[in-house]
Amino acid sequence: MMQGCDGYDAIAGVYDRLNAEIDYGAWADFVERCFARFLVARPEMVLDLACGTGSMTLELARRGYDMIGVDGSVDMLTVARDRAGNEAEAARILFLLQDMRTFELYGTVGAVTCCLDSVNYLLTEEDVKRCFAGVHNYLDPDGLFLFDVNTPYKFKHIYGDCAYILEDEIAPDGQDDKPRAVFCGWQNSYDEESGICEFDLSLFEEMPDGSYIRSDEHQRERCYSRQTLLSLLEACGFELLGVWSDYDFGTPTEDTPRWYIAARAKKPTA
Length: 270
Description:
Helix content: 25-40%
CATH class of the largest domain: Alpha Beta
Strand order of the largest sheet: 3-2-1-4-5-11-10
């Protein structure tokens, strides 16, 4: 599992429902535009690092890429494997249970994606550096690294000490005759001095008999400045290609909540 969370036991099964607003098709379109813009040729093999429930992994596999999905959570990978089992593209995916700081592959890949602020779950600069170094090691020469992070603005003004309630429904299955409700209470606590935001989540999932099961989870993310991230990329042998605010390569502003970053692995060719 990643350093900044106790695990995904509580939310793995409903993670995608609680993040239903994410348009992975549009995100994958952006990834492919980056491939076309920054790579000489379409990559044959792509690593989706911290792949979670495999949404981006599957989306890219559907587009013809051979995929490796690496994640540190057994629960999230179980969901990912179950989803892939129902897809014709499942043969294109290799899922591996590994820490994003110390992962190992069988060879190099043409591109690496790391989505949904997974880098923020690394709580020290040394851990970010270890992750970036691993990515650089397993990229082909001039291979592409695409990742996103939550910005200082989001930590201070959106996370802060705010509380949120997320609500959705789970579709009926063979045992249910009606949708079941799921509620997630989310309390944040942000320490601007350390840059650490604590997340306490309580999940209430309705059972077929109308009762509710509660599960609790604790997670942490760290805020990194743009300069820190760029310095760590450079130290690990990357060339920065761009930092954007959206899938349309927009220029970040002071109130941009997420940075999308592209970097090229500089390394000698054989």
